Amino acid sequence: MGLQAALVRDGLRLGLCEVRDVVQWADHQLARLENPPYELIELSLLGSSVHDAESKLRELSESISVAETLPVLLSAANKRLQTETEFGPRLAEALYQIYIQNSAILSESFSMCGYFDDAYSLASSGTFGTLGGVYRELLEFTAGFKSSSNKWFESFASLTGTG
User: Fold this and answer.
1) DSSP secondary structure string, 50-77?
2) Contact of 8 with 22, CB cutoff 8 Å
């Protein structure tokens, strides 16, 4: 359950799912477990607090780093970006936050995560580049993480409707 909780945790941070999806995931886990952890019960009873959801998900997945979940989530983000161009700036901001908080543990393949938020900002102000150009770069970057044959991707995709 730790890896699934980490995927949901980081998917929430990236804007790939909402608190209601977290509650739905927790309810599904509760239905299949005989002795669920208390944090899972608390997740099932959440209102709409993103902070509370992230906190409980961290407790369930503290041994799993974002470096392990990011490839799967970037693949899911790519699928969403293909149909929702307006998701790009939100994803870029979230990737920047994750990159700043975790740059010490992220490999070189994630170095672009710190780029897109600034690129969108510069493009939207007319200083450098275009929004369409940044979108295409983000789409290309996330396409490098295609993992739709991965069982964890399929699990996350079914939860969030990104599959």
Assistant:
1) HHHHHHHHHHHSTTS-HHHHHHHHHHHH
2) yes
Tokens of 157: 């995709």
- Tokens at residue 68, please? 């392990």
Cα distance between the two ends of the chain: 20
Please give the Cα distance from 62 to 56 (Å, whole number). Answer: 10
How far lies 89's CA from each of 17, 114, 122, 138, 139, in Å?
16, 13, 12, 10, 12
- pLDDT, residue 153, reads 57
Confidence of residue 158 (pLDDT cuts 50, 70, 90): low
The 10s digit of each residue's pLDDT in 40-76 is: 999 999 888 999 999 999 999 999 999 999 998 999 9
Indicate the DSSP class of residue 150. Answer: S
Residue in 52, 53, 2 with CA at minimum distance from that of residue 29: 2
Sign of the CA dihedral with 143 first, then 6, 23, and 154 last: positive
The Cα–Cα gap between 40 and 44 comes to 6
